[in-house]
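Lecture 7 notes. Example A: sequence first, then its structure tokens.
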Amino acid sequence: MKNKEQKIKHFSCQEGLDRVSNSSNFSWNQQTKCSSKSIIRKHVLSGVLAFLICFAIFAAVVFPLEQTSQISSPLSTIAATGPNNTDGWWIDDGRRGDSFAGGKGTETDPYLIETAEQLAYLSYLVYSGTTDPEYSQYISGRYYFTGVYFKQIADIDLSDYYWQPIGIAYDRTGTEIRRYFSGKYDGNGHVVSGVFTPSGSTNAFSIQGLFGYVSSLTTSRVDYAYIKNLGIINSYIQGYSWIGGIVGQILTAEIYNCFNSSNISGNGQQIGGVTGTLSDAHMYNCYNIGTVSGGETGDLVGGLTGAIIETNSSMINCYNSGDVSADDNKAGGLVGELGSGHIYNCFNTGAVSLNSGRIFGAIAGGIYGNGSIFNCYFGGNCGNIRVYGQENSSGTISAEYSDTIVEDAKNIEWYTSVMPWDVDNVWQLDAGQNDGYPTLRMTSTSTAYWTDDGVRGTSFAGGTGTEDDPFQIETAEQLAYLSYLVYSGTANEDYINRNYYFSGVYFKQTANIDLSAHYWQPIGISYDRNGTSTNRYFSGHYDGDGHSVS
């Protein structure tokens, strides 16, 4: 098996790039079919507006530039529905590799993956429950490679054999064997092509994708497992339930800067273009342009993910332009079912259809529990349909939906005056790409917040908070500590008067501060990250003393 030789130059939808694989040639020429005039307008309720202003502020700084190779995504043309050899798997003896290309698995010296054989070796280590002393030290119960780093250093073609996803819940016989990938995988701006999984209607065919089951041993977000900077092209990923282009099921982990341009299909439930499910997990800067479908009894089908569950789950700065269809119930342009969790700054232009049932929507098939949608819109080929499917929703939607001129969404002024999106750092518009709709710059590197445990500081640089002796703030960690005290409501009770924090207290910044490493939580909030009204106002005196925050 030979890998493609062409190096990926840019992780952007804007640069044309021909791709060479063993089966076909690819070039970026994305054309979504956009004709409808349905779009979501921002609601001007005062409470929501306060939240949006805060969100817009931190969105402008939370996507720091990453100095690494970047990728462009070609529109995939599926050349086949199965591998070149249908009688074997990549992890079988004689096909997989027996080592990586180098590295030690640390953040500064990650395990390097250059070939299909080496990627299959990683899959095998998890699937087999390896006892190799070199790797068994990274196993804790069901969790494999916690805190271990991997980096892909070339495009990889898997089209020779069936692919066994990295991380499983069921073996090929359908026996429950839970072995989760818990490491940190950096695609490094590369793609994987020729990912083929077999179709079926039993658990043996569930949890399919390049990665199958990704979950973190820790509940500390800064230590989460993640998949980043990776694309899937020229593939056909199918199965039963929990099917996604990048990951079948992702739990307490993160995925960002990823895309799928291949066909995704499942006969069961929770089927999505990027992930099958987001459960207490987070997706940022991802998009899908492939077709996503649910056959037989297929339901909970979404352009980006089949279902978002658990209150802490979030989808931010993502879009779908691929067509979505379900045979049974609950199809959505972005998500089949938003059970809990939150969607911010996303849009859909792909068609959404349902063969039977009635719960389908331009953004979500259904919204239940604490699910919420903020600053999202739909248009293009999705047609004039409801934003969500069911008659009665208990979720929160911060916009009203009306027929309007969809061309608004193709003008940069709309994103500065109406829809508060970051068009300087996150989104970009080019009339020649994505039919004029925005595309992602895809340059973020961290999804932790500065206020998270292990990230923020635990004290100020000095001072007592008086006018003559103000609290001194010298580092990002110390500034994050101030943010945390207000956000968490844990400031000294002497400094709290109802919803007002630090009234009459003085702070002085003593150096320039760079916040580019992590997401920023504004100091003083109206809503928490779940969209719950939580009014905690900063009421102190802050003197920047001529310094800057970048």
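Example B, a different protein, same format:
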Amino acid sequence: MKLIKKALSVLLCVVIVLSGTSILSFARPESEDKKMPLIFISGFTGNSLYCDGEHVFPPSFDGITKEQGVRLVKSLLRGFLSRNYSDLVKTAGEELSELLDEFKKSAVNPDGTQDYNTDARKRPANRSYGFAFGTAERKIEDALGYYNTFDFVYDWRDSLVDVADDLDKFIDDVLRLTGAENVAIFGYSLGGQVAATYLRFYGSLGKVGKVVFVNSPLLGTKSDAATLDRDQLDVSISSALRLASFLNGERYPFEWLTEKVGIRFLNRAIGAILDAYVVPVALYWGSVWDMLPLEDYEPMKKQYLDEKEQKWLIEKSDKLHYEVMAKMPEIIDSALKQGISLSSITCTDCGIATARKVNGDCIVSAHGSSGANCTDNGKHFSANYKQLNTTCADPSHSHISPDRMIDASSALLPENSWYIIGEGHCQYDEDDYAVALLEKLMTGDSLKDVHTDPAFPQFRYGSSYINQVGVRFGDREMGYVGTGDDKITLENFDCEYRKSDDINVKYVKIRNGLLTRRININSLLKPGETKTINIRKLFKM
């Protein structure tokens, strides 16, 4: 039963990817008075939805029995053999009826109305103190103070143009409460796109002093396009497993198998489920349209929306795409000229759960998050590739990632974009380096750009426990090698406070052009342990 629930949670991850009352105010400690207050904006599905006071989203699989799970898996296999997934759709509707009934309560009708009284329980600033959801957030809250950190709750189904209007009112409340001149914004995922939309329409008012975008679809994301376009849907179970691993707090042991076994049949299966149960509910969510990349927006609009019946939706999403997304470079430049500090953190090299060839963090594409020129997932720039330098003003800067998959010289913020390679969308909070970087950016101003501190280079490999083992040459950062390097250092990324798993590294493969050499190691690593091995000696054995 536990395995069935794990499998169902992985499928849920794929589908989800696609798929003010006044109260007494508290006295703020004097130590917090001189610090810039910070507002956290969560991502898509980041805030729970309630219908008449009862929680309806996100859904839970806790009520699913083993027998129900077995019937779903059998119907999936029958669909694979017959190439017809109508039975899977029918079985899912029967076995998951309660869950799907709850999900339907978040639907928006074609005219913009709702059949249910569903909302996100928005709160005024004086009821929004603190946002200590994870490791990074707790550290930031500790540094800035509880009464100096705020959680902006919004309905993530809404048009981001409307959400930006609400954010402006919320910022006014925060400034009144704290007496500060401006605020800092921590925009995670869709929350970063909200912040960028705010900068477009309200940035000139001088209420914001700093914004840090984390895995934010500033230019849209292909995972959203795959929700609506079956030609783009290309399921990556490897990316879905990585995402599910973080959400469930444990690793999935079969990720390696997905690289060996074809699972393209799942495209039709997932597509059938999306068309039957997800698209009818989410089709008129403003955010679904706002996350479409520019190149996908008009074709999808033509296919799904009626110019008259959905005028209410089209007007706002047109505004988002043509006044915000299309003008993102100008918005960034204007904010910088006003003295607003802008930084970006992008996780890469994990593919996308619904578009496996796209370089991304399982959900958001690396290009959509940072604007950088990127290769397809698993591909690399050629040996003679030269960085584009379309936004970097200094040709002497090196902005190509060590895996030669990212060219940050073309990014929206070439000098203030940090990339964490091999890290998933939600994993930043379980990576000591990512936590330290985010804390540094959010709580001070000493980290001016990617050249300021060698401890925070523009590119670094992720060290979340889900990545299991890290390999680097000697004392270098992962991904870098010199001609004289003859030692490798292995590290078990697990920690005592997580799963505490010992890992046995049997061998490593070292590629040099067309040549590949396998070196047997058989080294046991305890959680957090590192071992350095002389590979020159092993080569001679």
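Note on Example B: Residues 14-27 have pLDDT under 50 and may be disordered. The two ends are 47 Å apart (CA to CA).
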